[in-house]
Amino acid sequence: MVIEVKPSFGGYQYQDQWQRQTKAVVGDNSFDKYADRLYYVALAHTPTAPLTREELPQRFRRMTLREWGSLRYFLQTAPEFDSCRQDRAIREEWMRAFELFGMAPVIPEWKLLFAYSANEVNLGCGVKSFPILTSPTEHTADWAALVDYAGPLRLSPHDFSFLNH
Question: What pLDDT band is residue 18 in, cutting at 50, 70 and 90?
């Protein structure tokens, strides 16, 4: 697996960059033992479309694009990481890396705070549950408890992207 990563503060990735990188991998003899089992992952700051199968060198099976927010959410919610101690440790290392680069976890699911038609606000992690607020100005004690619960979580623009829809 070849992974091209851009940090949260980095520039954008481009398709011609990927084509140069995949050609360099194909030309490197140390990858010969992988035959045609190579996958390319572009992580963060990607355009809307990966290279197609026809655009990739023959040894590559496919390409995947991922942004930091969706990867972070997947790591937090995917049951695959609950199966064994090693997988949980890998997930914890990723979460520490997100915090190190200022990309704190998205748990609790903040989108649910704006779902006023539900009977309660579910924080998604089973720690606390708050009654539905009929207006943002009511029940300020509940909001204070929620803010205390959230603690030092830092939110990224990805966490609030649902407000633009």
Answer: very high
